[in-house]
Amino acid sequence: MEDAPYEGAQVSERGETQDGGQRPLPDLQSLQLLVTVAETGSLGRAAARMLISQPSASARMRTLERHLGLQLLDRSTAGSRLTAAGAVVTDWARAVLEQAAALVEGAAALRSRQDSRLHVAASLTIAEELMPGWLVTLRDTAPDAHVGLTVTNSWGVVEALRRGGCDLGFVEGPRVPDDLHRSAVGRDRLAVVVVPGHPWTHRRSALTGRELADTPLLLREAGSGTRETLERALRPYDGIAVPVLELGSTAPLRSAAARGLAPAVLSALAVREDVASGRLVEVEVDPSVRLHRILHAVWPKGRELPEPALHLLRVAKHR
């Protein structure tokens, strides 16, 4: 039998529960259970697949709903179906689980390469869309080079360089601090994307800067190169509106946009597959809105780049 209907806890906009406590983070097993329920259509079948009892699965799901302050499942004797909120959270959960798996794999790689000679920090779009190809080429051209990669936003890359946490950084932001060397390694642009059928997909004219500035959007977090580029582009229009959602990762924003939550402004590199598949539609923006940006390799002035960093820099500049 499926568990009883959910009774939602009251949570403030700051993520606090009614008694003033901070909302706990969900554990990975609960997120995996939610994804498995979505795949099997039943809490009981999900429990069986994960080799746990149904009472344990029910309790775990109820705890997840209470922590998030959302009803994720519609329960009935016929099974469990995702609510609208549950569908969006499930997409996010998949992204979290993928990142957790990447974390475990990455930690294992770092343990096996404690003597890594090159430490790199890269902002998210570069790390996800460009760095894998660069590293494959680097392995061909400099097989002895071992790379440890930290993925953060552009501000985090700058801070890692300043405190000596990496040898070479890659950033997407429009500004590079004066205490860093820079070298252009590519170009990117921001794309405004919406779900198919959104009113903007029927426009006969390009979206104006004023319209974009006045629209609540799905955005990357402050400190990211993507956010900084958009803020600079919309400064002539009094800046951006209060975002519908702002996150430190691209994947959940793409999912939320594909669910029709709101338009998103993200790297064209990051959404190219979604646009090609028709999952998202790119909206034309007036060319006067400066959404293009240069991608840079950066490193501290007065510090020589080690040989593996020079190899990687050459690869990045010529791919």
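Next protein, fold it too.
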Amino acid sequence: MPTPWPCRPPAVPQPRRPPPVPHYTGPLLTRPLAEALLRARDSGAGSWTGSLDLARSTGTATLAADHWTWKEQRYPYPGKTKDRTLYYWDGEEFLAVSRFGTALIKLVPTDWDAPTFEIDGIKMLPSAQVSPFEDARRKVALIAPAGKTVLDTCGGLGYFAACCLEGGVARIQSFEKNPDVLWLRTLNPWSPDPDAPVSGGRLSLTHADVSVAIEGLESSSVDAILHDPPRFGIAGELYSQVFYDQLARVIRKGGRMFHYTGAPNKLTSGRDVPREVAKRLEKAGFKADLALDGVLAVKR
């Protein structure tokens, strides 16, 4: 009889880096901006000056009776617009920056310029008391990214990555599971573009489920970790002991990790998620302490 082939373990699905997708460079409108353009036209003004990229830059639009021109491109005045909604030009009309796949996902303007996003109406980034970008900056500072290799487990809009680039990171590897979130990033001027010259090749963005993809990362290959998972009820696997053991495997001794947990209401949930997380991280080989709205852990 022929010798049977030895049994092989099942292959780990290979993550894939999204193909280069240019960031949208057209105007982004909110209801107040649309109304400002119309007021300026109706007052007889021939131009309007302001920002149409969420305060990343300013410019001047030339106003005519039935259209306006921005960066040599003509646009119609938008029709009815809604609060808490961003609109982009798709080549034919202004559409809301939202998609419905497995869930309704939407880019939402804030009072702080940098937008947040929602999934089925649940806000994914804080914005009530602080800019979501400034919030990310405070958390990134806890891991001191300068000169380090950083793992960003759940990339989202990329604010952690942007702050790491700003902070002098040597390399940051981001994973994002949701393709619609990756689409939002191409429309958000506050989201870093891995292919832009300013990123300097330091940012890698991979479309993958990090709970699976982490198995392909080398042991002791990163200096720091940023872990900002969805809430426990949505992505419990990213709070599991198995996953925390993997995080402990890939980070070097002495490496820092910030784990966002939020502050779920213990009275309604019956759980103290931050302390549960800290206990599991301790078991995985970290020293863990509560910090900001999460846990700061150091690999022992």
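About the second fold: The chain has a mean pLDDT of 92.
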